[in-house]
């Protein structure tokens, strides 16, 4: 395919240049707190027919000019990953025997069970090779000039506390088990595969109690993005 393609794994989802001039990143991180059941993820076939994407969350919520996107890739065949200028990516194996990423510079990363992970630049040309059959992979993508993202993999044994504050939000993806937020949050319990979004705003503690494993993603404005989001690549 000539030139650079912008999209998710195997060229499924196109990413257009960002046109969110004047949009404060803090306002994006204040998207309403909610739980997203795994049954409600939007599942779409890749255009090349080699897999599926289940979208969990994007900010902004509408359009292709996102600065944050959480999804699950269902990779059915060996395939090239599409490139994303200005985007940082982190991939976590959820199901399957793993995927081997071959980069254009000769580097190789193996994402193997249980919950193997790799972080890489969205601009990097990458080819994915399945180790043995279909994999499901958690896919975190964010624009590095706008956001800082820190992804943590933690066991859940009893209460775990998350603190939101102005400019700091959390996304919690329950890998296994079950969990519930303390009374008063208005949030429903989480089953395996569900995701909670905890919005930035006034400092608040969210206590999550249960058993299992989770991914916790802390999101804040990148140091160079305090204030408005400017278009990239222009």
What does this entry look like structurally?
The protein has 234 residues and is mainly β. The protein has 2 domains: 41-145, Jelly Rolls; 147-224, Jelly Rolls (Sandwich), CATH 2.60.120.10. It has 1 helix and 19 strands. It has one helix spanning 25-29, and strands at 23-24, 34-36, 42-45, 51-59, 68-75, 79-81, 87-95, 99-103, 108-111, 117-121, 126-130, 135-143, 147-157, 160-164, 168-181, 190-191, 195-198, 204-221, 228-229. The strands form 4 sheets. Strands 2, 13, 14, 15, 16, 17 and 18 form a 7-stranded antiparallel beta sheet that branches. The protein has a 6-stranded antiparallel beta sheet with strand order 3-4-5-12-7-10, with no helix packed on it. A 4-stranded antiparallel beta sheet has the order 6-11-8-9, with no helix packed on it. The longest helix has 5 residues, at 25-29. The two termini are 24 Å apart. The relative contact order is 0.22.
How does the major sheet shape up?
7 strands, antiparallel
> Helicity, in percent?
under 10%
Number of helices: 1
Total of domains = 2
Q: Under the CATH scheme, which architecture of the largest domain would be assigned?
A: Sandwich
CATH class label of the largest domain: Mainly Beta
Low-confidence stretches: 1-22, 227-234
Number of strands: 19
Order of helices and strands: EHEEEEEEEEEEEEEEEEEE
Strand pairing plus helix content: what structural class? mainly beta
Residue fraction in strands = over 45%
* CATH topology-level name of the largest domain: Jelly Rolls
- End-to-end distance: 24 Å
Q: Using the CA coordinates, give the radius of gyration.
A: 17 Å
**Quick one: overall form?**
globular
- pLDDT averaged over residues: 87
